[in-house]
Design a protein that fits this description.
With about 350 residues, the chain is mostly beta strands. Helix content is about 5%, strand content about 55%.
Length: about 350
């Protein structure tokens, strides 16, 4: 049995704050069933997320023979999460993120969101074991994303590929259990499944033909077309425009199903909270991985995610938090729409970032 008198209720609110971040839904490695609040209570976290050369404490980028010393992988973002206790068993949550990732001369900006409900159906405040079920919907979206380096699209070598209206939406169900080893230490585990849908709008790219003519290509659902944008480097037959029924957009839009499991160790006292969590995810995509393998590439459908969190109490109802996240295969499952036929070869690398923020309980 836990000794619930060791902490003020507001500090328990702050310390038990559900995971927030940037797959499984963001920071599922820290899922737990130990959410005890009176009806009407509110919790808030506001954090800054980043990684760059100064914050690369694990030397992931600096040790890379290609990207070490560059701005590739610089990450900057922020997020806000609010949680509301509908009852002492039912918790509703909402989160928003803004993120920016740099790759050489390209920079991708995107927005993310999450809505979740968690219901504890087994265990009371002082029970040694609690079990909860959690349903969440979450996703990412951006107006456009550009890749300036040479890329093969539909059998043509193109540059400055720009995809419009990228988005992904996930629905996920998790079963979570928490076991209290003492008044200060607990272990949690979870298992879950979910579905994902990635969608895109139209796409454009620059293309130089065999006779040196430059074209702006447009890829739409109705096919592929090209408009000449200047003079040609050589003489011969010149087409000002051309079109074909080839539709490459399905290569970038796909559905997926995934399963996940993981666990967390949590220690806390009156002023400190320390969490360490692990998450494994396996993804089965509808067709895009088959296209990647058929073209000689490697599909990446597994991610191992490690999360550590340190929280320090500032007052009766506030705390400061520092959190780190490490992924074995970059954002596989974390931001689904960034994975497609032209980007998959980048997902064999590790990636991580840090978050610094404030947490409040009311």
């Amino acid at each position: 049995m836990r000794d619930a008198k060791n902490h003020s209720w507001l500090w328990q609110v702050v310390m038990a704050l559900c995971p927030v971040s940037t797959t499984a839904a963001p920071l599922d490695a820290l899922l737990n069933a130990d959410e005890f609040f009176s009806a009407g209570e509110v919790r808030l976290e506001a954090s800054k997320d980043a990684v760059n050369d100064k914050l690369d404490i694990l030397k992931i980028r600096s040790s890379d023979p290609i990207y070490g010393g560059t701005n590739v992988g610089d990450y900057s973002g922020s997020h806000i999460k609010i949680a509301y206790a509908v009852t002492d068993r039912l918790l509703a949550e909402g989160s928003v993120w803004q993120r920016s990732i740099t790759y050489r001369s390209d920079e991708a900006s995107l927005n993310s969101w999450q809505l979740a409900g968690q219901y504890r159906f087994f265990g009371e405040v002082n029970s040694p074991i609690q079990i909860a079920v959690r349903f969440s919907s979450w996703g990412d979206q951006t107006n456009s994303m550009t890749k300036s380096s040479p890329t093969d699209v539909g059998g043509r070598q193109v540059t400055n590929v720009t995809i419009q209206s990228l988005s992904d939406t996930q629905n996920q169900l998790d079963l979570i259990g928490t076991w209290h080893l003492s008044s200060q230490t607990s272990i949690s585990s979870f298992i879950g499944t979910g579905s994902s849908q990635v969608s895109t709008g139209d796409m454009t790219a620059n293309y130089t033909s065999g006779n040196g003519c430059n074209y702006l290509l447009s890829f739409t659902k109705s096919g592929t077309s090209g408009d000449r944008t200047g003079t040609c480097a050589s003489s011969g037959p010149i087409l000002d425009t051309f079109s074909s029924p080839q539709n490459v957009l399905p290569d970038f839009s796909y559905g997926a199903d995934y399963v996940q499991f993981g666990g967390m160790l949590h220690w806390r006292n009156d002023n400190w909270s320390l969490k360490g969590g692990y998450q494994f995810q396996k993804i089965k995509r509808s067709h895009v991985d088959e296209l990647i393998v058929a073209s000689g590439g490697t599909a990446y459908d597994i991610n191992h995610i490690f999360v550590g969190e340190l929280m320090r109490r500032l007052g009766q109802n506030s705390a400061v938090v520092v959190r780190g996240q490490l992924m074995s295969n970059q954002f596989v499952g974390e931001v689904p729409f960034v994975y497609n036929q032209i980007t998959a070869n980048k997902f064999n690398k590790q990636y991580g970032f840090l978050s610094f923020g404030l947490v409040f309980g009311f």
